[in-house]
Amino acid sequence: MATIDKQAVFARLGGIRGPDDDRDIIRRGMVSDIVIAGGKVMFSITVPAERADAFEPMRKAAETAVAAMDGVTGVMVALTAEKKPAGSTGAGPAPSPGPGTGPAPRRAGNGPRSTAQSGKPGVPGVSSIVAVASGKGGVGKSTTAVNLALAMKASGLRVGILDADIYGPSLPRLLGLSGRPEATGERMLKPLDGFGVQVMSMGFLVDEDTPMVWRGPMVVSALTQMLREVAWGELDVMVVDMPPGTGDAQLTMAQQVPLAGAIIVSTPQDLALIDARKGLNMFRRVDVPVLGLVENMSYFQCPHCGERSEIFSHGGARREAERLGVPLLGEVPLAMSIRETSDAGRPIVVAEPDGDLAKIYQGIARAAWDGIQKSGSDNARSPPKIVIED
After folding, report:
1. Measuring CA to CA, how many Å separate 50 from each of 54, 81, 84, 255?
2. Could you write out the DSSP letters of every residue in 301-365?
3. Model pTM?
4. pLDDT for 298-337, tens place per residue?
5. Helix 6-13 vs helix 56-67: crossing angle, to nearest 10
6. Cα of 61 vs its chain's centroid, Å
């Protein structure tokens, strides 16, 4: 396969002009940094927000021009716009009250969840999709998501995990994976295998030190492609490791696929729980059932003397779960072995499958799967039931 040169891509885009200017999009400074991953080329074009429709033919022309280059197997081009200053006016439609590219989130009605989630196309071959989210970063969400997926896999389920954190992908390091996904056919990539779990992450497509300087629409495009243009195969459940917060990625997942539920990860202290509450309420607003809360870093137990210290307080997630009427799925201690095995790319559920910490994650997996079955995934195929043996 021919090597794709970034300067050659810029040169090819030099022939593309907008609808009302003789200058090309390169000279006008409209093209973002170009990311090349294997045979895929990704970039965005900055246009006036109120005239996005008029610039769509230009976007298609740019996509077609790059797709014709030797060695290119796929192109992702998104139109993006600078945010208008506060108080500015324009002829375009009024902005939606929420972030994202789809309709603004609405409050959940009194009807069943299946009504809100029906009509959204599922991912081919995937029975249930579960989002693991947090209101803020640094609470151990990715570590929880990985060990949850591995615990489900160990219990007999066919599992995949999608790293939806475009800006800070963690799964390659947590699972000790490297390399590029292989192309399996037209516009399809083969996920990597991590201890029997199918894995896809933006971290496989760009170097670890490369910053993703992308605006929201580009993030949405990348996430949509990792959902729809990956050969996931037949899965009982896909675990989605969400980025922290309540932004574009969360709304994209809630609006584009029928989520079976969301799991919120938090540490016990009040400051973290405030943000966890925001994340929980966001999923409720878009009619996604919350399967429960996980209290991570619940306490610290000294590996030498056995003394227990509640560094971040304790029990906050339990009290919050009771207040909000959702289950507490489990309490995970702050343990050196979890950090060490995660850094080594061999998570605790794999490294010490019979240990006490692995059993905590297995309990969370069992409780989460019970919640998935009760919530009634739109595509459920009755996969094997999790059985945890003591």
Report:
1. 9, 9, 10, 23
2. E-TTT--EE-BTBSSHHHHHHHHHT--EEEEEEE-HHHHHHHHTT--HHHHSTTSHHHHHHHHHH
3. 0.69
4. 888 787 887 888 887 777 778 888 888 889 999 999 999 9
5. 140
6. 30
